[in-house]
Design brief:
It comes from Noviherbaspirillum denitrificans. This protein is α+β, with helices and mostly antiparallel strands. It is 28% helix and 35% strand. The chain is built from three helices and six strands, in the order H-H-E-E-H-E-E-E-E. The protein is globular and about 35 Å long. The mean pLDDT is 90.
């Protein structure tokens, strides 16, 4: 449970640096590199708003979360790009597939590891993001 953990949140610079490393690993579909940046008990929450497919439950575990990012890259080889963006006041990632916005991702980082990933795929909530690269 996230609330039971001691909190040692990253500085803004450390947050951006960790996300840049994760973005590069995800772009290469490098599972091991992604897993190294994720807490072993990382969680992923996805919001499709009933308008686009998303996970209907919280996913947990570094291997599973790295596998989700790996799967997106392999299903869309050469068509996935990440851009760093400000999401909810912190550095986050926008993911584009075939040049179109697919999701906005925010991250909770503690003690140098990603402990939670929040993925918004609901097109209504993505309205403010740049639609195309």
């Amino acid at each position: 449970m996230l609330d039971a953990r001691p909190r040692f949140q990253a500085t803004p610079d450390a947050h951006r640096a960790l996300l840049a490393a994760f973005m590069q690993a995800a772009g290469r579909a490098d599972r091991d590199a992604m897993k190294a940046l994720l807490s072993p008990d990382v969680s992923l929450v996805s919001d499709g708003g009933g308008k686009t497919p998303s996970f209907h439950r919280i996913l947990r575990g570094a291997g599973r979360i790295a596998g989700v990012f790996w799967s997106v890259e392999h299903a869309n080889q050469g068509q996935v790009e990440y851009r760093m963006a400000r999401i909810n006041g912190e550095a986050g990632l926008l993911r584009y597939v075939n040049g179109k916005i697919e999701s906005a991702q925010s991250f909770l980082i503690e003690s140098g590891k990603i402990v939670a990933v929040f993925v918004v795929r609901n097109p209504d909530k993505l309205a403010g993001a740049p639609r195309e690269l």
